[in-house]
Amino acid sequence: MSRIGMTTTVPVEIILAAGQVPVDLNNIFISDNQASVLVEAAEDEGYPRNICGWIKGLYSVVVSGGNIDKVIAVTQGDCSNTHALMETFQLAGIEIIPFAFPFDRDYDLLRLQMDKLIQLLGTSWEDVQRVKHRLDVVRKKVAEIDRLTWQENTVSGWHNHLYQISCSDFNGNVSEFEQTVDRFLLQAGAASEFDEDIRLGYIGVPPIFTDLYSYLESVGARVVFNEVQRQFAMPFPVDDIVEQYRLYTYPYGVFGRIEDIRAEIEKRNLDGVIHYVQSFCFRQIEDMIFREKLDVPILTIEGDKPGKVDARTKLRIDSFVEMLR
Predict the structure, then answer these.
(1) pTM passes above 0.85
(2) Is residue 113 scored above 90 in pLDDT?
């Protein structure tokens, strides 16, 4: 059974239907106690300082950490640096499988990409559909964690983030992950309500900060909407798996994301939004579009390398939360 690394969310149902183990390299990187060392290791290998910390972390996870047999790299719909990341993987002798989300959400092009992946991994559409039905059960449970977060107020922003983002690879073992979700649902169903007075949305790529959610809660604000993480969890009630990955907003244009964010701002009664941007990421440009199109106060914060929220960012968060009160 091969361990297949992923540079971001791809149709994980195909990997599982092929009997392989999906590994979201981002989750392995950021959960490593020595994540900052992984970034430095990539720089020692020659990665430039002014390149995204996530890219450097992914490189080191695969090349230095080992135990990854091949990597599915998303060449369209994620990071603009992935092409060079693929090339450095190839230089290190790692097998690469490219996957591209069509920018215009074209159904036929997306199905073609999925079909090529199915053939390459040696499975079938029938098996993929069977796995989809299995994952739909787990995705529904994770959607309940999300509902408990914003409607019942019994889940922290961090746990909301954690369980939804884990749906990119289901921690490599769907049954074990489902058991963890079941235990958490029991705990959350009986938990006391949070009493923060500020409700926030979090948009943008997942933070490289390790304590952002707990810091926000320490100043009386809680994240009740994690935009991209919710997209990774895919709470879309559709039977067609190609359509499921068309509804997934993250890899396509920003305006589809804005429609989703607007709807959730209203539904979840948000006071403001934190837009996280990663240093040296092209998505920083999209900040000007969010500020033009969203009708709630926005605080844009930037992270570079793994670690705790820095003092300057804490000060800006404090001022933002006070302004919302």
Answers:
(1) yes
(2) yes
